[in-house]
Specification:
By secondary structure, the protein is an alpha/beta fold. The chain is 47% helix and 12% strand. Bound molecules: 5-phosphoarabinonic acid.
């Protein structure tokens, strides 16, 4: 039995148990359709059995490449956007020391990111930071043609070659891309970089357990075997053979769909540990790109508590009643800190003396849950025992599987993202990219 537990008790005053149970045939059929490949987007189901099909030799190869980068670099830049960086950042941030970026006595390289924006300031500041540092680059792009990523890589590659020479730079660059197509594939082949393949049948937002996520996570010094083992456990628990009431992914999918149908159009993913901020960013992409289409889809938002209780708390408690919240609840903090007693007690905090900070955090969580449910915000809770690689692996697969089932319940294709192309077409037209002459002519009339 997996350690992840979904608790929907605080939803049942908003939607009845019977209503949720009535979804059983549809949810089981959706899960079966995923496994039989009979539903929409069935050419992008490579993620389904990914955890259990990862081979020892593959993990060993990733670890060997990670070791090589660890030995030659103090900083590794992960260049990618969307699904090509969010999974890695989510896991690395969740498992790293919060102040890792400040460390000077490093065991593992610092991981920084590029290619996920087009800010000139960001790139200039990054280049300046990397000047005279031993750095490497993991360049990730499935299509191999994404402008943001290609642009950052062009600049960073030139800097690395200028700093260490072309031959040494080659040893510090890894490309993760399509097996055959795209500019990055041709460039990597021509330059002789170490490469990894993103399987054709795994979309960007489902790719965290491919080299896209695994290599950066391993370079950061985290246990990718434990991460994969956690995902394998969840893969088993969410299989179509599992009874509906024992399958947390199916339960999560039906609960959020029923809340959506009852008028709760926004889901906020809540954490009480700032390390989970980017798990929520990853989740936002997963659900936003998978479900937001055909004029449908829950709007996925996220908040960090208790931080955002002091900014968004008012809206959540008393604003328009169109939201529900899903809390990632960590049973126990990894570290222990007891609140000290203070003789003068000028801050009036002695009533907390001797208790753990985590116990105070837990009461903030419980108090908020009760207040929000009183304020008509249904509350789902995903509980994991602690923040470690195994549990994060389970959590990621849980969300992926639930997303597939949820998309099918919503009757959309959860594996495409046609809407993402619209801005690109306009940007290319405005930049007068060769091949976009007609679009350039048309858009110029509108500006
Ligand atoms: O989920 C997706 O498909 C997207 O977010 C992509 O990951 C993102 O656009 C990056 O694409 P690529 O990896 O082709 O550079």
């Amino acid at each position: 039995m997996n350690a992840l537990h979904l608790n929907i008790d605080q939803v049942l005053t908003f939607v009845s148990k019977q209503k949720l149970e009535a979804y059983e045939p549809a949810a089981q059929a959706a899960n079966k359709a995923l496994h039989e490949g009979s539903g929409k987007g069935n050419d992008f189901l490579g993620w389904l059995h990914l955890p259990s099909s990862i081979e020892e030799a593959f993990l060993a190869d990733i670890e060997a490449t990670a070791k090589k980068l660890q030995a030659s670099c103090d900083v590794v830049v992960v260049a990618g956007i969307g699904g090509s960086y969010l999974g890695a950042k989510a896991v690395i941030d969740a498992l790293n020391n919060s102040f890792d970026w400040l460390k000077t006595d490093r065991t593992y390289p610092a991981i920084v990111y590029a290619g996920h924006n087009i800010s000139e300031d960001y790139l200039v500041e990054l280049s300046a930071t990397l000047a005279n540092k031993r750095f490497g680059i993991i360049n990730i792009s499935k299509s191999g043609t994404t402008t943001e990523t290609a642009l950052a890589f062009r600049i960073l590659k030139a800097q690395l070659e200028a700093q260490v020479g072309k031959e040494a730079a080659k040893e510090r660059i890894v490309a993760i891309t399509d097996a055959h197509k795209g500019a990055l594939r041709s460039l990597a082949n021509k330059e002789g970089y170490k490469t990894y393949v993103i399987p054709d049948n795994v979309g960007g937002r489902y790719s965290v357990l491919t080299p896209v996520g695994l290599l950066p996570i391993a370079v950061a010094g985290h246990n990718i075997r434990a991460l994969v083992a956690g995902a394998v456990e969840m893969e088993k628990q969410c299989a179509p053979e599992t009874a509906f009431d024992q399958n947390p992914a199916a339960q999560y999918a039906v609960t959020r769909n029923e809340l959506y149908r009852s008028g709760k159009k926004i889901e906020i993913l809540v954490n009480y540990h700032p390390k989970l901020h980017f798990v929520a960013e990853w989740w936002k992409q997963l659900y936003g790109e998978s479900e937001g289409k055909e004029l449908k889809g829950i709007f996925p938002a996220a908040v960090d508590f208790s931080t955002d209780l002091h900014s968004m708390g008012q809206w959540i408690q008393e604003g328009e009643r169109s939201i529900f919240e899903t809390v990632i609840s960590i049973k126990e903090a990894n570290e222990t800190l007891h609140i000290p007693s203070d003789e003068a007690n000028l801050d009036g905090l002695n009533y907390l003396a001797g208790r753990r900070v985590d116990a105070v955090n837990k009461m903030a969580e419980l108090g908020t849950r009760i207040a929000h449910v009183d304020g008509a915000v249904p509350n789902l809770r995903i509980e994991i025992p602690k923040l470690d690689a195994h549990n994060i692996g389970s959590l990621l697969y849980f969300f992926e599987k639930a997303c597939g089932i949820s998309g099918y319940l919503l009757e959309v294709n959860p594996f495409d993202q046609p809407g993402v192309e619209a801005y690109k077409k306009n940007m290319f037209a405005l930049l007068e990219k060769p091949g976009f002459e007609k679009e350039t002519e048309a858009i110029k009339k509108r500006i």
